[in-house]
Amino acid sequence: MRAILVDDEPAARRGLARLIEAAGLDLVGQAATVPEAARLIEETRPDAAFLDIEIGGATSFDLLAALARPPKVIFVTAHSDHALRAFDFQVVDFLLKPLDPARFAVAVQRLERTLKAEAAIQQHRPAARPQPRSVQVSNGRETRMVDCRRILCLEAERDYTRLYLEDEAPLLANALIGRLEEMLPKPMFRRISRSLILNTERIERIETPDRNSALVHLAGLASPIAIGRAGRSALRQFLLGPVR
């Protein structure tokens, strides 16, 4: 099992690395910042990530929200007040510092069971279906089929999703953004944050006014879309590939 760890404290990284290796896991990399972690995950494709939550002015929540397919996560933190939000990301376990080796071993066992269960499901999963050309969208009053090529981007609004369409007013769909994401063709559509999906074939240019944000200009959309640091990092990796 391949794993990475992310923590901005060198001493904490050393201690956690010893526990990971003692558990028989293959530690393939370490990171001290969210951008480093994003690059590391893109390059190594680990099965699991051991993440501190507060990392150099950012959080692991920013990191996970920007990843289309995050690895399995075990949070390792000194801040118990993050526990409820952590489980919104379907983490495998939540460990508090200082780490107890016995409790750490339980978390690793839980991780192994989770990965084995998912592998078994994958073996019995039917072959992938052809990519859809249109999606069915309902606004509560009517249901229609929308050509995927006309969708510029999708933005979550609580339990709804706003679709920005070519030559048409935005459409508020009565569906969660995650549900619509499952219906959209890949890699045309890329989720770069928890609340935003872009049609990557519509990207004309990207402005970077500073290191923590970007403005994405889409063909057919009058105003650019503002994204934060994590979204900018995810989009850059998708367009340019991992940094070597």
TrEMBL record:
<protein>
    <submittedName>
        <fullName>DNA-binding response regulator</fullName>
    </submittedName>
</protein>
<dbReference type="InterPro" id="IPR039420">
    <property type="entry name" value="WalR-like"/>
</dbReference>
<dbReference type="InterPro" id="IPR011006">
    <property type="entry name" value="CheY-like_superfamily"/>
</dbReference>
<keyword id="KW-0238">DNA-binding</keyword>
<dbReference type="GO" id="GO:0000156">
    <property type="term" value="F:phosphorelay response regulator activity"/>
</dbReference>
<dbReference type="Pfam" id="PF04397">
    <property type="entry name" value="LytTR"/>
</dbReference>
<dbReference type="GO" id="GO:0006355">
    <property type="term" value="P:regulation of DNA-templated transcription"/>
</dbReference>
<dbReference type="Pfam" id="PF00072">
    <property type="entry name" value="Response_reg"/>
</dbReference>
<dbReference type="GO" id="GO:0000976">
    <property type="term" value="F:transcription cis-regulatory region binding"/>
</dbReference>
<feature type="domain" description="HTH LytTR-type">
    <location>
        <begin position="145"/>
        <end position="241"/>
    </location>
</feature>
<feature type="domain" description="Response regulatory">
    <location>
        <begin position="2"/>
        <end position="112"/>
    </location>
</feature>
<dbReference type="InterPro" id="IPR001789">
    <property type="entry name" value="Sig_transdc_resp-reg_receiver"/>
</dbReference>
<dbReference type="GO" id="GO:0032993">
    <property type="term" value="C:protein-DNA complex"/>
</dbReference>
<feature type="modified residue" description="4-aspartylphosphate">
    <location>
        <position position="52"/>
    </location>
</feature>
<feature type="region of interest" description="Disordered">
    <location>
        <begin position="121"/>
        <end position="140"/>
    </location>
</feature>
<dbReference type="GO" id="GO:0005829">
    <property type="term" value="C:cytosol"/>
</dbReference>
<dbReference type="InterPro" id="IPR007492">
    <property type="entry name" value="LytTR_DNA-bd_dom"/>
</dbReference>
<keyword id="KW-0597">Phosphoprotein</keyword>
